[in-house]
Design a protein that fits this description.
The protein has eleven helices and nine strands. With 258 residues, it is α/β, with parallel strands linked by helices.
Length: 258
Amino acid sequence: MERIKVEERDRVLILTLYNPEKRNAIDEKMIDEIKKVLSKERENENLKVLLIQGEGKIFCSGGDLKWMERKGKSDYEENLKDALELAEMYKMIWDFPTPVVVKVQGGAYGGGMGFLAVSDISIAEKNSKFRTPEIKVGLIPAVISVFLIRKIGLSHTKFLALTAREITAEEAKNMGLINIITEEDELDIKTWEIIEDIKNSAPKNTRKTKELINLIYETENLNISLRLAGEFISQARASREGIEGIMSFLEKRKPKWQ
């Protein structure tokens, strides 16, 4: 049985976690399927947005413990290889060229928090819950911590990882894990409103904006960051999209993106 469903709709790649019997728990099959889709689609210049969502009442319950148990009994090299496959999956989402939107219903736990940590924009219905429960079952929220620190900072990551406490959507928003909270019956509407905002912007320079922000974040040297920013804006101003965008504003018309 496939662990994900994939659909392209009006320049949006929709990736749906599909393991409903286990509340969309992550296992090696899901990881492999996601990686294959992302590897194939990252060169698809027709795409404007990647939407990640979950089937059913819960977005993602985290790692499948039976998978964890099985890998824990394998030899060290196989165990490590499997862990690095998970790490690569998250990094592929982090590096995906289009904006990545994650939609959460019900909640995100453990590895499910990883999808939020590597998202660009995240939306959740107000009753959603969030937790990194790994230490309660003798594990470590290891791979996701790499991205949680980047998303919500050291202090919030330590609080979540070391207490394993469940937090509300409002608390998650205050930490920066969630951008928008909606009523349950408005989750789809609000998600697609955000997607339309992205789609109506210059497609190539939207991608370049994400690339630049990630580069600046990962660059500690201020002068290098400013140099990167200068290079990116000079290229944008000279690009077809930059010229069209400025002219459409001055001429008080909608831009015609290619």
